[in-house]
Give the backbone structure.
Amino acid sequence: MGSNYLKCARARTIPAGDMNQDSLYEQAADTYGSSLDRLARAYEFETEVRRDLLQEIHFQLWRSFAHFDGRCSLRTWVYRVAHNVATAHMIRQRRIRDRLASIETIEAMPDSSDHGELAATEVEALDRFSMLIQRLKPLDRQIIVSYLEGMDASSIGELTGLSPANIAMKVHRIKNILRRWFVEGGLHAE
Amino acid sequence: MPSDFPMKDPQKIWQSQPTERLKMSASDLRRKALERQSKARFEALSTIIIGIILCVVFAWSFARAHNTLARMGWGLLSLCGIYIAYHAYKWIWPGDLPEEAPISTCLEFYRRALERRRDYQHRWWRSGLPFFLLLGMAMAGLGTGARNAALQHPLLNALPFFLILAVWAVAFFLMRKKLGRENLQGEIEELRAFERENR
């Protein structure tokens, strides 16, 4: 295995053997239930299929806790399983064949007229998030979702396997894109 | 647009969207696990049975054929039946997420998933199965046609078979072209470069 294998020893870890599979799953579902639903939305846009994907994420999460040994924070574990299940779903659904772009490519694209106006409501803003996320390759999708969930660069790096510097650069680009797509100059300062 | 619209914080908007909280009970999870196991077992068994049926049917034709060429063709098709069953069984069974999912990073996991997909496609084409299937069909068809045509017009008699074979071959090459378009290798190389860069 590579050097990234089990490179997730961090603070907030749970002592191994203290909790069983069911209680770990319950804790994860209680703490990250909403985040997992949002994550599923970022990978699947059809409601029925998304419900199946979410159920699959929960199921695989529960299965994975049989091997949880506390060397990794619960949050990292939960997000890794969830993103990996969702990526496997994309590959199964052959979405990889779609013309997906990287953050860099989207940042370099000129503004199209349909994004030129400001989003007037939160619903519109969320639609635009979906439009943006739908265009992204899995790895960049993981980064933008993690960023939107409020994770910092080092946590995203731990999750994805990219270096914090690389993540910081990508997050900077994401902010630029969001600024362009939503409201010029309206985002929080970095 | 109201001036105090919270568009200023995309993270806040993203996190405040209405969500559907799902929590499965322990009994539901165990039931689902059992269902999956049964389903995987059923799929694997069905594939094995189909492979065995194909193998037996072709072997039966092999035993009944009098022409050497036809016998060789049916024999080859019979072996292909076994191989198809084995190949499908091998790739149908692993329905669950690989165990490395929680401990390998998303980058590693994604690359491995793409590699598995690429290897699956390569293995299919490189196994030579399409070639052996075509050869077996041609041999069986020609052998049978030659005998049934009372040795007068064997090729004319085998014409429908060759028409079907031609359609199949066109479909075969079109499918191959479509699969090639997926260009998984490019994506894998890109991810490997990322991994090297971030080591």
User: Anything to note?
Assistant: Residues 1-18, 185-190 of chain A have pLDDT under 50 and may be disordered. Chain A touches chain B through 70 residues (CB under 8 Å). The two ends of chain A are 36 Å apart (CA to CA). Residues 21-43 of chain A form the longest helix (23 residues).
